[in-house]
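#struct-queue
[09:14] JT: dropping the first one here, sequence first, then the structure tokens:
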Amino acid sequence: MPYRIFPPAPPLRPYIDMYWLLSGYRSEQEVITLMPDGGITLVLNLGEGIRSKHYDGPIRNEGIYLVGTMLRSDEQELYGENRLLGIQFRPGAFTHFYRYEPMHLLANRVQEFERKMFPDLQKTIRYFVPYLDQFYLDRLSSPKHSLTALVMDIEQHGGQIKTGALAKRHFITERQLERQFNQQIGVSPKEFINLTRFKQAFEKMQHNEGRRSLSDIAWECGYYDHAHLTNDFKRYMGATPTALILSDFSKTLASPPR
């Protein structure tokens, strides 16, 4: 099924990962598995109904949905004519555009988003990227305690940093760190750090092609041994590394929409 990625305007790139479009027709039901990435996504459904494992009901036509920070994979059932448009925010960046309820209340959930807070539907359909760029440039306003620098620090370390060291490097107490991560990302700093480490290990496995052992990858990514990495695979993806990499749905995980 065609999946296209569109980069936002350069000033938005520290805050928005991408806009994406998933479209096509499926005569039979298709199930895709999406991995957790630590960010918030807004999804506009312009096609037929879709069913999410984490949303108790169909994602209806012209419905707008907020996908909270996920700590587990999601399975989505696609059928018929599909046209999904997504706005994928960087971890902690959603609060640069929206003053919304604390993100920990939305974690691991898919829920309807207020239409009045979403870009104009017709302009989004007609102009897409240029209109979304202007809409979010006009809304861009940093919260009092931005997490942009902290998220970047965690990612640059590949998730191999302790919360105490992170707090000290950014002149913030561990208690403040915990509160801000829960409010702006939806998970604790320790959970986000662990997810970042797992994402790095997963990416290395995706591009490994059998050249290196699981133990080598685990050690490089800061795991005590391959058993700990396997436990994270089960936790985040619901499958062992071997089962996941060999499965058909692994092809959808390299750079999927959420």
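[09:21] JT: and here's the second one, same format:
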Amino acid sequence: MTIKDMRQKLTERLTPAVGDSEAKAMADTIIMDIKGCTQLDLAVNSHRDLLPETEKRMLDAAQKVIDGMPLQYALGVASFHGRMIGVDASTLIPRPETSQLVDIIEKDWQGHSDLRILDIGTGSGCIAISLALDLPFSQVTGIDISDRALTRAQANAKQLKARVEFLKADALHIEQSAVKDKRWNIVVSNPPYVLMSQKASMDTRVTEHEPPTALFVPDSDPVKFYKPIADYAYRTLEPQGMLYLECNPLCIKQVVDTVKQAGFSDPRSLLDYKGKLRFVIAKKD
């Protein structure tokens, strides 16, 4: 089967599940990721034959999507900040909003080096790895409560040749962890922040496949993770150090108030690329 034939076959199979335009994009992504090629390669080499084992891998990935699995899990990788990050059911799929948070951090600290950075709730390691590779000579640590997530993050760092220390720690009890007495220039976190009341309106590809402990918080305590993170950050950040948080737009005021209560004098909220208040940033005086 040629690449052109495979694109058509994948599109036809995926269309009933995801719609025509999404099916075409997914077909291309499946071929490019499994073949290790670019969009240009697809166009120039569309007449080339695929090996039978390659055909099978592509069709198997499409079937997983048809059965309800997110494409990134079906392929085992997700694009994040210009790199491919390995993902599985132990980690969230990295979102564009989180890549935007990395952009904000890198812009704020452009020209600095030898920074000490902590990523709380590192998951796949996407934030920690990106900062380690993009901010020169930084000492980056990522913590997570999940052993499986830490294994995935370590594998990603090795694959991308990023120097990151990954440690097991509970974001709700950071003061009892191995990083309790360390000092930082940057503390960043994308903790669980989706309200349980929002679950019913969410795509089942998310709710049935991504780890719920990394997604949801009770409606009664939307700042469950932000309070211990903000308290810890205020205590351990160096003067002029900064805290970066990704948040639920519905709860942005509660997060800002929580950060103020921790001691930060003037936290800012920033819009994401969709125009929603998504980030809270604070500097330690």
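[09:30] RK: nice, looked through the second one.
[09:31] RK: The mean pLDDT is 96.
[09:31] JT: good to know. The CA atoms of residues 121 and 233 lie 14 Å apart.
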